[in-house]
Write a structure and sequence with these properties.
The complex is a heterodimer of chains A (203) and B (231). Chain A is built from 10 helices and no strands. Chain A is mostly helical and 203 residues long. The termini of chain A are far apart. Chain B has a 4-stranded antiparallel beta sheet, covered by helices on one side. In chain B, helix 2 crosses helix 3 and helix 2 packs parallel to helix 4. The chains are: A mainly alpha (203), B alpha+beta (231). Chains A and B meet through helix 2, helix 3, helix 5, helix 6 and helix 8 of A and helix 2, helix 4 and helix 5 of B.
Chain lengths: 203, 231
Amino acid sequence: MPREGRPDTQPCVEGGKDPATCDLQWLRRAGQGDRAAFERLYLHHYDRLARFVARHTARRDLVDEIVNETMWVVWRDANQFRGEAKVATWIFGIAYRCLMKTLRDRPGVPESTTAQAEGTSDDAEQVELSDWVRRGLLALPTEQRMTLELAYYLGQSCEEIAAIMDVAVGTVKARLFHARLRLRNTLPALGGEDSPHAHAARG
Amino acid sequence: MRMRREDDPMNTSTQLHRQIWDLIPWIVNGSASATERQAVEDHLRQCADCRDEYAFQSRLHAGIATETMDVPDAGGAQAQAGLRRLLARIDLENDAARSGRVDSGEPRKRRLLDRVLIAAVLVQGIGLALLVPLLLQRGDTSARYQTLTSAPVHASQAVIRLVPAPTLTLAELQAMLAAEELRIVESNTGGSIYGLAFDSDTAADTARAVERLRRYPGILLAEPIGRAAPR
């Protein structure tokens, strides 16, 4: 009996459906060899993947390489997705492993750089704040830094980060706790009420 | 007010403070549940240390979340170019996988044949290992062959061994046997050697019968069988 709405055969329109639903449909169809669905999945996630990876390397070619390695695994293993997490979480878990492997295999990879803000003083203050934060993040162990970035850059929940990093929820909390303690020591100005960044952030 | 080292929440926090600390990141990034958010807000109203931590995390979040990485044109031409490269790679690997299957067919057959031959050798070896002790136990050293004259007399009572020439016709053979009152009682597998017995064994003279048989042109060999009745 045909299912209502025939979700597997109708094109997924992002504006009309939940992104997670679109992701799942594209992934299922990609698992059946549907290249068009895979292309939509790729383009849908490229931006966030590239920006997340770019936080750890200034080499543009390496960013592309890691993103494509990630999406190649997605294409290859699409049929193995069991739906235990969101498709996006699953993809970022793959990206995390690809990124960590690259960082391990190529220890000399140059760190990323932030784009220069243009024009307004608000932008300049934001860049200054970001620069402070970046210096603090560089002082963290990779696992703690990744945890913090997954939480604050990608907005992942604690459970999602645990799935991405393939660790227990308690480990995520512990890493975050220690990362924050360390930043408290390395970024004293950021935490002080006298800091201009504090005023800027509080508006 | 800048927080002093001795006022660090890590040093002074109770279990409740630690729980609030653990929840703050998820309040800041918006992934906490409504219940968790309510619990944190209730606590922050009465805890200056945790309010300070909340403010610190909010600024940290602002510094990270709004950071613009140097990824030019990240969802447009760059994404399309990356996609084209990945699709080309997928095509290439699919082709390689297909040709790999074709190429590897012959070696696989060869490996299978090797395995069958090895198995056959093993089975032979096991068979020999079982057979040799049995043969040794029997202790039978007699020859495994016998001459025409030493062949035992069977119950058929063959008394003459006859080897006709291949040119001897069946009719000639039948006429000869009828004249000598002989009959074929045994034969070898190929039908080239016959054992003959007299139609009636009363007063039959094997030696004379042999002599007569030898005179037939189509007979290569005729001789009495070793255990024939004495003359």
